[in-house]
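Hi R.,

As promised on Friday, here is the backbone we talked about, encoded as structure tokens. Could you run it through your design pipeline when you get a chance and send me back a sequence?
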């Protein structure tokens, strides 16, 4: 298992993705572990090398004795990055992780490219509340606060849709070492960055949940967004663990903030690359060869806006975009385009089962005749693909 000795504690971590990609570090809430970021990771790996870790006292990381501080936890992150040879990284922290992110923004801004502060605060409520929580855990273990914590982590409105995540989080919370949990409670109890926020000079995104009773927008996220220079903000209809209640919205916010937008000078270049990756070299070369003065502007329109603006958006993966295109083409009867995208899709990420489900859906919502035509075209493309494969083997 991947462990690193950081700042006199053994930290468990997961580093995934291609080494040449920029690094994005995730830091979780108190009472959870690195797995809380699982919904976001798969769609991020084509853009980032993703580093998740268990905060000291949580998950598989060591629960050292005594009270912790946010500075201690922040230095854990810097030591882990140094051990892994990571000089520069973007950082996304939620709740406790967001406090760590603030400390990094104030004390290690030269190491950060971007900072995402989710469901967090410059000051986490009254000291007496944390003292009571510490007392409950010391006397009754994690079972003494699990129900209270779960009511804060998830909102009643979304609990049915988050039940799978909620059951896992409950188990994680119950399995957290009380020593580590108390240590982190002390760190949050003592944290106060209100007077220093204007010194954070890292591009920052603040995410809050409108149903978050632990760190509501008022006097928490709004303070961060107001005081951190040029910070952006986003409010989601979610409770404290907003990345689990609204996983796609949270991911879209990350991608929109962390990835650079394309200017006009690079949109055509990106469009050609995407067009080739999606439709194949032969098709695009043929389209280029057929370009003349009459249709040149039309070809530029397709490349720049369809492929360079829409297809390059990171919020949907290539498979989903292709299925949406096929469904639209079938519903509108654009059969030449439908056949082209079926052919190209079968050479890339689509499988026959994808086409079957798409066309069954088409039958219900666009009519049986459209699905019937689509099945005929898809079957021919499948047969042609098998025939081509047989020729290549010979």
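Update: got your reply. Pasting your designed sequence below so it's all in one thread:
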């Amino acid at each position: 298992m991947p462990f690193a000795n950081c700042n006199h504690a053994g930290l468990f971590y997961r580093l995934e993705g291609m080494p040449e990609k920029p690094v994005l570090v995730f830091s979780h809430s108190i009472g959870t572990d690195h797995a809380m970021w699982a919904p976001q990771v798969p769609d991020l790996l084509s853009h980032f090398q993703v580093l998740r870790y268990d905060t000291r006292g949580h998950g598989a990381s060591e629960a050292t004795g005594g009270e912790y501080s946010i500075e201690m936890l922040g230095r854990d992150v810097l030591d882990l990055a140094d051990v892994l040879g990571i000089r520069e990284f973007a950082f996304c922290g939620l709740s406790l992780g967001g406090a760590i992110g603030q400390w990094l923004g104030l004390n290690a801004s030269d190491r950060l490219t971007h900072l995402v502060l989710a469901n967090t605060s410059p000051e986490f409520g009254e000291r007496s509340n944390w003292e009571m929580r510490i007392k409950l855990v010391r006397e009754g273990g994690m079972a003494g606060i699990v129900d209270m914590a779960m009511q804060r982590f998830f909102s009643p409105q979304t609990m049915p849709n988050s039940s799978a995540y909620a059951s896992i989080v409950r188990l994680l919370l119950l399995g957290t070492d009380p020593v580590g949990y108390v240590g982190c409670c002390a760190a949050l109890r003592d944290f106060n960055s209100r007077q220093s926020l204007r010194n954070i000079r890292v591009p920052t995104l603040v995410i809050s949940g409108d149903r978050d009773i632990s760190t509501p927008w008022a006097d928490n996220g709004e303070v961060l967004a107001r005081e951190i220079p040029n910070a952006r903000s986003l409010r989601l209809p979610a409770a404290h663990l907003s990345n689990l209640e609204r996983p796609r919205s949270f991911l879209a916010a990350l991608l929109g903030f962390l990835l650079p937008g394309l200017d006009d000078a690079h949109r055509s270049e990106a469009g050609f690359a995407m067009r080739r990756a999606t439709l194949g070299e032969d098709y695009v070369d043929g389209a280029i060869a057929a370009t003349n003065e009459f249709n040149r502007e039309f070809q530029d329109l397709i490349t720049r806006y369809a492929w360079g603006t829409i297809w390059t958006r990171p919020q949907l993966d290539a498979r989903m975009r292709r299925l949406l295109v096929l469904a639209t083409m079938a519903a509108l009867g654009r059969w030449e385009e439908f056949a082209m995208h079926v052919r190209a899709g079968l050479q890339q990420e689509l499988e026959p089962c994808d086409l079957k489900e798409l066309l069954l859906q088409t039958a219900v919502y666009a009519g049986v005749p459209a699905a019937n035509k689509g099945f005929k075209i898809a079957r021919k493309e499948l047969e042609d693909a098998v025939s081509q494969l047989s020729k290549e083997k010979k």
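One thing I noticed while checking it: The two ends are 46 Å apart (CA to CA).

Thanks again,
M.
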